[in-house]
Amino acid sequence: MTRYLGLYFTRIGFSVATALIGVFFALPLVWFIFAPFNPRAELGLSIPEPFSLANFETVFQNSFAMRGLWNSLVQSVGGVILVGAGATLASYALSRSPIPGKSVIAYILLLFSSVVSGSAAMVPIFLIINGIGLIDTQVAVILVFAGGLLPTAMFILRDFIDSIPKSYEESAMVAGASPVQAFFDVALPVIRPGIVVVVVWAFVSIWGSFLIPFILLRSSEKMPASVAIYSFYSEAGTPIVTLLAAYSLLYSLPVVILYLFVSWKFGFRFFGGIKA
Amino acid sequence: MKSFSLLSRGTGVAFLAPAGLLIGAFVIAPFFWVIYVSFTNRSLLGRTALDPDFVGLANYFSLFDAATFFTRAEFGSSLILTIQFVLLSAVVGQAALGMLLAWMLQSVPKSLKHVTETVAIGAWILPEVVIAFAWFAFLDYENGTLNMIMEALGFPPGDWLLSFPFWAIVVFNTWRGTAFSMMLFNSAFSSIPPSYFQAADVAGASSWQKFRDIGLPLIRGHVVTDLILITMWSFNVFTPFLLTSGGPSYRTEILPIYTYRIAFRDFDFGKGAAVGVVVMLINLVFALFYLWVMRRRAKGVVA
């Protein structure tokens, strides 16, 4: 009997401890849930009274803030197109073509991409972008992100393509399709779920990032929302909390939506494992 | 051996070209360029911006100068600070807390499990600027939520970012990153056959005994993977900059922030590049170890 009593007390103890840790995780976020809807929000926590959407109106009227969201979208979509297209073609080639040393190539790429982190490579990346005359352009941000995310994207996609039987494309080619036709008409539709995961991951990575646009961009009209938010609270003296809270919420929305989409469609562990 | 393959070698190379070009220009070239720049006195402004001199190992000597190594705001002190930051926030913070949470989540009610997982994952997926701003508000001296709680409990309020800046970024990074370890260990624990634990229950084992003798030994491989990954990520994380900008008086200037200051505030690209090289060498050790572990596991040798 006592041993079951012991199990019972362990369960209660664990529940209390888990709840406490849960509260520790929730506390910094609680403010962020209420403040956007409180027209008199300060850094202090208070329940909005009355509940209002006035802060969002302030954001929509702030052209710098809105341009930031637009720039984030331009940079993320641009980067995603390059990563999605580049990784799909390259990982298909790594999986299906007779290029010698394919797995060595894949490992070397993975090695480089984890060694060359944003913080270690900020000097040479700045110098390279400066050297080709792309400083303070959105294109620079897009290219740098695409290069940085491609190795991991290729690694994930190659795993995925390796798991698809070659017989699909082989039977298409027996029926007379060219290799390129077999790729576009047969393989691509089968690979699509893998591409969706890679594309969502790349979008979220670029959308949320700060350092690369922060060092490569100069003019305020090209800044993405991440840099805009930072400049709102670090440079403006006293931060305009109402604007910042609502703006942060708007900016977080795509990440949360995409995350929910992926976890609903593929289970969140898959997405979790590949966040770098 | 001749085997039928779907893509010809030429098409294969053509398919690889776009990705190869981008990776070459923005991953591989920076790796070698940073080594080259670290041997020069390249700066952002002035004569050496366009026409840098070759200075040999001068930048490295200045980084590892024994006279200034332990001086605050110098490389050595930043390196020591970074090691402390990684040990405390990644190894002790993220891994241990993630492990504890994952273990407890196995035996708490489903609803509590879901809520806890959701907030931890929220801390992990939200963009870094938003998280940093939320913490900025949380730790604020006048109105912050934390001081509100302290006062309600009868403790004096603290000016956390000024008085305990290092601990602020340690707790911040723990809070931000624990979800990854939690999820990894959670799936590792749930892959252990339940009969193992049931047998231990019948024998009257305590939760700690089950953890020590069944849980931990069976997920050792996952622990190694987790430790390598979170160590590497925390070692390279720039996010604390958004909370403290490296201050006050350089007390939170971990290496990524130090690199940024040397290169983009002091305009000393040569020295900044030398720091980059040191960081990359440390990354290389971790990455090689990680690949080695992965390959061993792929070959069926249990790590």
Secondary structure: elements and pairs:
The complex is a heterodimer of chains A (276) and B (303).
Chain A: H1 2-34, H2 54-61, H3 63-96, H4 102-115, H5 122-131, H6 138-162, H7 167-174, H8 179-208, H9 211-216, H10 225-234, H11 241-266, H12 268-274
Chain B: H1 9-37, H2 47-50, H3 58-63, H4 75-105, H5 110-125, H6 128-138, H7 145-152, H8 160-163, H9 165-190, H10 194-202, H11 207-218, H12 220-235, H13 240-244, H14 255-265, H15 269-298
Helix pairs in contact in B: 1-15, 4-9, 4-12, 5-9, 9-12, 12-15, 14-15
**SS class of chain A:** mainly alpha
Average pLDDT value of chain B? Answer: 88
- Beta-strand content estimate of chain A: under 5%
How many E-type strands of chain B?
Answer: 0
Span of the ends, CA to CA of chain B: 34 Å
Radius of gyration of chain A, in Å, reads 24 Å
Order of helices and strands of chain B: HHHHHHHHHHHHHHH
Order of helices and strands of chain A: HHHHHHHHHHHH
Helix content of chain A: over 70%
Number of strands of chain A: 0
Give the overall silhouette of chain A.
Answer: globular
* Main β-sheet description of chain B: none
Terminus-to-terminus distance of chain A: 48 Å
Instruction: Tell me the number of helical segments of chain B per DSSP (H or I, 4 or more residues long).
Output: 15
Oligomeric form of this entry? heterodimer
Structural category of chain B is mainly alpha
Organism (chain B): Sinorhizobium garamanticum
Domain ABC transmembrane type-1 (chain B): 80-290
Protein name (chain B): Sugar ABC transporter permease
Membrane topology (chain B): Multi-pass membrane protein
Quick overview of this protein structure:
The complex is a heterodimer of chains A (276) and B (303). With 276 residues, chain A is mostly helical. Chain A has helices spanning 2-34, 54-61, 63-96, 102-115, 122-131, 138-162, 167-174, 179-208, 211-216, 225-234, 241-266, 268-274.
